[in-house]
Amino acid sequence: MVKWHLTGYRRWISSPTGSVLLLVLLALVGDYSSRGVFAASPLPDQSDVLYHAASVSSIAATRDVDSTYFLPNTTVPTHYSISLRTDIHNDVRTFSAITRIYLTVLAPTDLIVMHVQELNIASVALYRIASTGGNEIWIDSPTYMIDIVREHVTFRTAGMLPLGNYALEVAYTGSMRNYQSGYLVSRYRNEANEWRSVGTTHFQATLARRVFPCYDEPALKATFDLKITHHRAYTAIANMPLAGTEIDPNNREYLVSRFERTPLMSTYLLAFAVTDFKTLRNGQHEIVVRSNAQDDAMYALTVGSTILERLGSYLELSYYDYMPKMTSIAVPDRGTGAMENWGLVTYGEPSLLYNPAVNTYRNRKRVTTVIAHEYAHQWFGDLVSPRSWDFIWLSEGFATLYEYLATRLAEPGDEYWELFSVEVVQRAFLQDANEQIRPINWQAATQAEVSSLFDIIAYQKAGSVLNMFRNVLGESEWRQGLTQYLTDRGYDAATEENLALHLQRAVEGKDILPPTANVRDLLASWTDAPGFPVLNVYRLYRDGMMILSQERFLEQSVLPTGHVWHIPFNYAYESSATFYDLTTAGWLSSRAAKLETPVPDDEWVVFNKQQTGYYRVNYDRRNWDLLAQALMANRNAIHRANRAQLIDDAFNLARADLLDMAVVLRLMRYLRAERDYAPWYAADKVLTYLYDKVRATEHEHAFLVYVDELIEEVYSTLSVDTVGQGESTLYKYLRQLITGWACRIGYKDCLERSRAALRKEFLPGQGESSVAVHPDVRAVVYCYGLQQDSAEEFQLIFQRLMASRNQAERTDLIDALGCARNADSITSLLATIVFSAAPDTTFVYLSEERNRVFQAIYSGGRAPTLALMNVLSDPVSVQQLLAIVGEGTITNAVMNIAQRTNGAEEMARLEMMLTAMNGILPPGTLNNARDTAAARPQWFTTAEGLIVGEFLEQYNLP
Ligand SMILES: [Zn+2]
Questions:
Q1: Of the ranges 42-46, 267-271, 351-355, 427-431, which one carries the lowest mean pLDDT score?
Q2: Distance between CA atoms of residues 617 and 641, nearest Å
Q3: For the chain, what is the mean pLDDT?
Q4: What is the spatial distance between Cα 621 and Cα 643, in angstroms, rounded to a whole number?
Q5: What proportions of the chain, in percent to the nearest 5, are helix, strand and coil?
Q6: According to the annotation, is 230 in a ligand binding site?
Q7: What does DSSP assign to residue 660?
Q8: Separation of CA 150 and ligand 1 centre (Å)
Q9: Domains of the chain and CATH, by start
Q10: How far is the CA of 943 from the centre of ligand 1 (A)?
Q11: What phi and psi, each to the nearest 5 degrees, are found at residue 254?
């Protein structure tokens, strides 16, 4: 699954008619409606020998969970036969169904316990199925009891059931929701501008029980027959191909769609959809999409086919040996997530649709990587499921790794794999440095505990750790192990033990691991303990001797820990810059050890080549200086992935008081010659952090001078407003990052060209034709083009937003609008949120777009933020907005404004706003915002703040 950004159900009120705000804003908005504009990072404490025997004291990965949430194992399912009737074509949000659950009684019992959520049961019947075959014999109408907390339904029979096979038939009705839950409704506007409702499903993790009574635990696999009765104007699709359709004998306007039987699979992977969509086919690979977005689906159709086929070859297990077809469906207005149901993957539209005319290289990457993620799940998750939710990381970790790796198999030219370190490893480090973080293996019982497992640990950390083992074991052994794992556990479930066993067999007798080590123990040192280590490299500068030590890396505090990670390491140095040889040179399997190396004492050394190991590295001060000098002299002496690592590690080590922030700032000075994206990506995080601290303070100017020197040369090689032939993906990322900084710090060239390009598109001079801004440069051009007097362009962009039915484009346009410097423009943008709640409104926003408007404004710069603060300072306006977007969005906006407040003037303005909001937001929220803002200036009194201030002062001396 890729996260759907659930914000939950939001209450709606309509009709802001007659409100003061409306009138005031109508005046500001002017006569838009009539013109139709608005239509729309230490020394070792002990020394030891490397290759130390693999005995590690682990922190047990256990916590107490309430086992009463688990199903008793007296009965197990073998097959489900589901018949469901839906009227979704009429936007009817209830459904009726009869589900027959075939089960085996394993221990005599009079209780059959399974899961159910919000189903109204009408009747229950129990049948005995003779082992000799023959007819099913009715034996009972069991009574039942529902535990709404555990979501258990217990069927009680009149007498004890002997061992054997039974079928329980349940007739019931259920309801649909308009968010990711069970059988759900979503709406879109067709060509004739009519609203259409369509039904799709989302069952992970514990939501299949909303649609049919079932044994809703991943290991309890069964086969499924599915029949859906629906209006004949709609079609039904499911995991399996259609077996046939008949006319409903009860109503000739309806059809009964029957599907082929599924293989053994988990309940959470069942899926179906009832829509008036079109199907695009490429062999057994198909895309289902609303008819007015078919062109946008062509990219997914092609790239999806390739990814599925290449993954099959890579794993030596063809997808089509297991399933007869693959369907990906684009679900309108359902966020940006995706779900890997076997044979029927669901996506929010921006994760499946890509139109090069209006969408950006980032959308293309999103679509490609999300498809790769979900298709990887067809093996990791669907064919082999986690034994329990505790092992969801076996699904999501692999999916996260292959989300990137599979794109290299399918579209190597896209270079997405190059982003793995910065987007996955470095991102995981950020959260995994928290004292409260959970280990990878973590138990869960309740629905809330299960859903909380879908976090950065299960995705990015597990993906990073798996990638470390891929490198340590070697690509061919890794693949061999995976193929055996998938073959052995296919149609069944797995645990970490199963994976470790097959990986161990693949490396057995090959001298890949130290003689005393085994995969299971090595892996467990990373999966059973929370957090991750920092490898300290303390050079003695005496015949290449070094002392290596490890400790847990935490963002703020130092915790005593007995845990020792098995850290595979390798290194490169000046006269042996072997960055492409990723062979493991040794293991640090103790707290500390002495290491003899051939590294000359006057050369730099870099550990963890290409950052394939999941750990940070710190050095003694002299080595940091050697590295900074080396980069200044020739950045290419060090691999680009390690340049990114050095910046990211140095910065985070400094933030944790393990290094001096001035080392980071000096190290980064080489960036003036940097042309690769990954190091700039890491640097961008540092610059953003610092800019946030120094903006509107006495140090701002010196900081801007620093940034100017870093970006000046690279900026001169990039074009703000045009896209050239044959540009690589990474070049596009680099351009957006650099031009974004150039415009932000006020490069005249950047601002003027953005402004001009915006005018050329929306307000071309007389006799000139409109020249569209290329989508790949749109983010910077629109945003900074709108930072000057550009009310007219603003309106035209808004108009385009209202007219667009491409969700990804709409999001980009909202982000652009939020940059507007013109206060009236921002005010009217907020007014449209109010208008959008009126009946028959022409202002149409998708579910999450109103929140996005707020986010776009407070992220858009100081000017739009001030305009937002003005609106929020008017109690009537806040009440109206709050009624529509909910308290969460307003609170979020207030906290984000507070987090961006610098200096006395801004503090005073914030206080004005908070005072005006008295009685509207809870006092706790308002005080929270005050405290957050008040704490900000204190940064300059910390060691880090003083060091940065001092550096900038010195830096700025002529
Ligand atoms: Zn996933």
A1: 42-46
A2: 14
A3: 91
A4: 17
A5: 45, 20, 35
A6: no
A7: -
A8: 25
A9: 67-276 (2.60.40.1730), 386-528 (1.10.390.10), 532-679 (2.60.40.1910), 786-957 (1.25.50.20)
A10: 41
A11: -115, 155
